[in-house]
Amino acid sequence: MVCKAQVCLVQFNMPYEANHKLWTGNKFPLYVSTRVKDLYNFIEEHYHMQPDSFRLLLYTSSCTMIDLSKMKDKTMEQIGVDFSIDPSSPDMKNTLFVVDPTEPFVIDLAPSRKNMGYNLPTFNVTGAPSLHPRWTEENIVREDVREDVRDGREEVNFRSCIKTETSYVGLVNQAMTCYLNSLLQALYMTPEFRNALYNWEYIDSLEKDEALSIPYQLQKLFLNLQTSTRSAVETTSLTKSFGWDSTEAWQQHDIQELCRVMFDALEQKFKNTEQADLINRLYEGKMTDYVKCLECGTEKSREDTFLDIPLPVRPFGSNVAYNSVEEAIRAFVQYETLEGANQYHCEKCNKKCDAHKGLKFTKFPYLLTLHLKRFDFDYKTFHRIKLNDKVTFPYVLNLNSFISSTTSQESPGGEEDIGLGIKCDDSSTTDSGIDMSNGPSTSSCTTHNHENEKNRNACMLGKGPYTYELFSIMIHSGSASGGHYYAYIKDFRTQEWLCFNDQSVTQITDDDIHKTYGGGPSRVYYSGAYSSSTNAYMLMYRQIDSARNALPMQTQDFPQHIQELLKKMKESEDNDRKNREKMSIPRLKVYCHHPVEGKLMNVKLFVMPDITWTEVTEKAYKKFGLENVVSLDQCRLVSYEHNTDSIERSYDDREHESVENIWRISRRFDLLLEIRRKDQKFETYLPGGVATKVFVIDVARDEVIDGPIDIRGLLSQSVKEYKQTVGKIINMDPKQMKVILQKFTETRPVENDNSDLQTEEFYNTYKVFISTMYDIDNSKPFRESAVYRIIENFRHVISLHVQLPDTSKETLEELNIPLLDDKYEEKEKSVTSGPLKFVNESDWDVNLKCNETLKSCARINEDTTIRNISPQLGEAEEWNTPEQSNSEDSSLSDSDKTLVGDAPEGTDIEPQSWDSDYFPTRFAKRNYKAQFSTSKRFEIDWDIDDDSDYYFRATPYTDSIQQNLLKVLVDKRMRLSTLKKDLQSYVGVSVEYFKVFRISNSGESECNCLMEQLSSYEDGERLNVKLGRALRNGEFKVKLYQLLIDSTEPYKFLCEWIVSRDVTVGHAKKEILAEIKRKYDIDIPYEKCRLRKKYFKTASKVFLNEQKFEDFQFHSQFGMIVQELPDKEIVTDTNQIVLFVKRWLPAKLQLGQFQEIVMDNRTVEELKKKLSSISDIPEEHIDIAKGKGSFPCDNSVLRIQNEHDWNEHHDSFEDGAVFLYRDNREKPKQLNADEVMEIAFKENSRLTPLSTTSSYSPRRERALKIYLDTE
Asked: In 10 A of CB 547, how many CB atoms?
């Protein structure tokens, strides 16, 4: 049974005060089995609306309005939606109205279009209600709507809410195939070409494979364009018949170049058929290339054919353009005088004579194509440029004056080929892309005046057959370096002009056409090469001939073989639709505040629709690598809004439901893997929630004593209910609670307990302050109160989470870093309100990410959990010596946190001197293990210019994986240098021995500008403090990686290592091997260990034992690779290179394991010889291809056979390069559709990385070519 579906549009009619975004025009499929409840769930979750805050009305394609509010358990079929309407019918689609449940909603369904005397397509709405309809029960269920209409209240024009549809089908842009789409739409809208193509019949015995038959695939595409109910169809089957693979979609080409190549291919395919002369019959013209002697009058000529006429926009060497196409054509046939040194040797005169050389048209084609050569070369700047000069073109073009009245003359000696051919533009600018900003204006789809028709009739009265009407304009929008193609095309049946812009098809006006003349404003960037404009590039005209002019064939007129093909296509489409619904794989984007990485990460999961929510949670849990970090029961998936970093809703008690049930309508959504502490319980999140950040104020102490505390409320919740929620968390009596809301520029008390949070404008970006009083003096107005003053001063305060390093005695000694001396520590204690104490907890596991970053905030690509160890210790020296890195990195070994003055082990120290009885219990629940530290000076005066006196408060805490962190409240006007001074007491070492790094989704970036204020820091941002060992002169810091050659993540970061210039590689290797054996239990024998340079993601040059490090050039991100060899080292010379090779087995769709080949001469012959020795394949049967992308050059097995350049000429080989090789006698495995889908799913899961970082290696541009199956 075919799964019936219709399109449903969403239309919002909500009051402005509701603060809802109007997503009018969105579409989704409506199935027979879709429930009304599903529609409500879709609106709630997709548009973030609260339940019961809206009502749904469905206007169906059968012109019936249905109130859905009382029938949520029924399906679309049960409520009367008619799915029997022909999908190809132009009838109005279903529209879902989202309206206010408290307000009446009245609509006017009367036709509102004016009859403008133009044949625009109309909506055939059978039985549409009259202007003032009286609804019956079958039209609408609610009685109040009928009363509203009878009362004559203001009505809503329903027709204006529905986007006018043109009933034309667009083409999907595969990537950069807009040039292809424009030409295909022009050919499709050419009746003579379409009809002739339909008359061609595919015969199995004459074709090798229907998938490779260009006319057959073009037939199917045209049928889809004519009969499909979709808004756009794909061109992948056609491009596959061209012999193109998926990478061709990313190649940029020119529309005129494609036209010539496609016509050549069609001519080849039409040979020995009735359509053998189709291209010549429709598009071929003739011209004479002549030379005429001015002394004897003898004319030598040769006849040539053409498919298009290339017209220069400007004369050569001139800055003034031709005004019109007619002027350009006249210049095209203007003769050139051969004189002086360029005289013509006349055989009849037997001497050099002056002569005229030029072109004459002898026959124009039925379909005339004019190519405006807007791309030129500027010989002054040596750049290709685009010419935006204005060149007009007529709707009707009379070319009779260009045909010579006499036939071509020849000399008595007969015809002679004088070698003068037509100059064709073979240097068309390759161009495609995304610049669509200057596209057509389609806002006013008015009818054209009748000027064109009058011109057409007038020209038809003229003498001669060569009168043409314009029907297609190919437009280029962009510059000489890139742009976008689309087309304006006239429908001969309706006489209306349309814009075909990939998937979009819209009506246009005369003004839109006039804008394509050019001459308008251009956007100039650096030079003419980047001057962007929108103008006509290629024009198509059809000869006005009543005997030949045709209209496109209609469905009922299709030949029998086309009717059978159409039936076959419909059956195939229905089967594909059913299979897609069964095998539809939802793509989930899952975020996670990763406890180890310390940043928000995301992964993409492809799951089957019937998988349970519990199974999806487990997949995400494993994908983030949390197995040894937190337990699975501490994690759950919730709906998440990434832009505001807020949870939208949870799915409590639905863990055993399938993904399909939970997300029945939407197929793309974002989730968050929420992680709770062991002593916490998951909170229930209902739709319509708001995440508030709460701060607690102690008026008696004149300061904020806690916050931010994330507390979730509901927009529909009353202020009283919100207070009760807050009171439970902070242990405060709601009756004594004062709530103050701080907006961007306003601070006001919230005093109406019965008001809801939405009315009070509680939003995610606002802060909420809680106190038991406004001021000790109750008589003071709010704006003069202590609370108001504290909050206003707190406006500049942000919260930061600071991750602390391990500063155990062993670690500091190993890094040659001294502890803070006693005097310095005492000095710091004198300005604090209490002792700085940490609990010595044995379970503090600091599992840090150990990556160094550049000053330029370079992206971190390698993940690791290994610590930085360096055995060389020395006296402290200045960090940034000229030779060393600009950034330091030290991720240290796990140990107990120990500082001078530690409290007894296991002591829970609670905040002191709190006046309220509510606070101690509240903080005991949060397991705070240390006292607050706040400078007393901050409590006295907030407005001090001295940078050292800005607000600072730090509270130690542990996270879900027992990492020790600080929650810091700090004035963002403070400088980084001051922040470091305030942090040094918590770090335990002087500011000279640690650095601060900002953590973001793209990695870590060092905060190296000490005079920079914290104004750019975000509230809630996470910082990482790292220790660093001082370097001696002649020492360098390098990063060590272990090469895991068969892993998808081949480079495992080990640590940073310090090397000296005068140390040999062999000596350093021994020390490195001993250290990684001791610390990481990596045991590699010395004779089987190789050190080599890491160059980006390539294992590059091999370091020989006798070399010294002074032989190498060091830089700030120098990396070195530790590689374990299967046997002893065989590289003995610095001129040798090492390549990685893998064997490709096409018959099994498998790749072998990596092998190494050491090359001396760096030639293809040497490589094939060595490959033959390890594979037993004769050298003459070995094909080689260079791996794509970065090491390990992993690629889908479905793409290796056809998307690698086998036997490409390789003139250079580099260390660490990857090459694939195969036996060219081996035949590829043939797969059916199910096998392809299964392998694609597995490969997609295997190749999808945790990180969103992608490595793109652009392939070289190829010439446009269509490959025939005979090649």
From this structure: 5
Residue 90 burial by CB count (10 A; 0-12/13-18/19+): exposed, middle or buried? middle
Give dist(CA 168, CA 186) in Å, integer.
13
For 435, 640, 647, 684, the CA distances from 637, given in Å and listed in that order, are 39, 9, 10, 12
Statement to judge: residues 763 and 720 lie in one domain: yes
Q: Is 178 among the residues known to form the active site?
A: yes
The residue written with tokens 């803070």 in the block is 820
Q: What does the mean pLDDT of the chain come to? A: 74
Highest mean pLDDT among 147-151, 244-248, 1113-1117, 1161-1165: 1161-1165
CATH of the domain at 4: 3.10.20
Q: Cα 1131–1134–1137 angle (5° rounding)? A: 60
403: left (phi over 0), alpha (psi -120 to 50) or beta: beta
Between CA 651 and CA 657, with CA 656 as vertex, the angle to 5 degrees is: 70
0.90 cut: is pTM over it?
no
Same-domain pairing of 709 and 674: no
> What's the pLDDT at 370?
95
**CATH number of 276's domain:** 3.90.70.10
708 and 618 within one domain: no
Q: Which of 8, 178, 293, 635 is flagged as catalytic?
A: 178
SS (H, E, C) 863-930: CCCCCCCCCCCCCCCCCCCCCCCCCCCCCCCCCCCCCCCCECCCCCCCCCCCCCCCHHHHHHHCCCCC
Work out how many domains the chain is built from and give that number: 6
Domain end marker among 793, 814, 835: 793
Considering the candidates 253, 371, 476, 484, report the single residue annotated as catalytic: 484
Cis peptide before 708 (omega within 30 of 0): yes
Indicate if the pLDDT at residue 107 is higher than 60.
no
Cα distance between residue 670 and residue 653, in whole Å: 20
| 1078 in a structural domain | no
CA proximity to 506, closest of 116, 170, 235: 170
Q: And the tokens for 973?
A: 């006007």
C-alpha distances (whole Å) from 681 to each of 602, 633, 635, 674, 720 are: 24, 11, 11, 12, 24
Q: Is there a domain that residue 825 lies in?
A: no
pLDDT value at residue 1201: 84
Separation CA 426–CA 875 (nearest Å): 70
- Please report how the helices 214-227 and 255-269 are oriented relative to each other, as an axis angle in degrees rounded to 10: 120
- The span from the CA of 1035 to the CA of 994, in Å, is 19
Q: Is the peptide bond before 310 cis (omega within 30 degrees of 0)?
A: no
Respond yes or no: is residue 484 known to be catalytic.
Answer: yes
| CA 111/CA 195 separation, integer angstroms | 36
- 996 falls within a domain: yes
What type of residue sits at position 758? Q
pLDDT tens track for 402-448: 986 544 333 333 333 333 333 333 333 333 333 333 444 433 443 44
Q: Is residue 174 part of a domain?
A: yes
Range of the domain at 708: 691-793
Per-residue pLDDT at 33: 72
Read off the tokens for 126: 């059978």
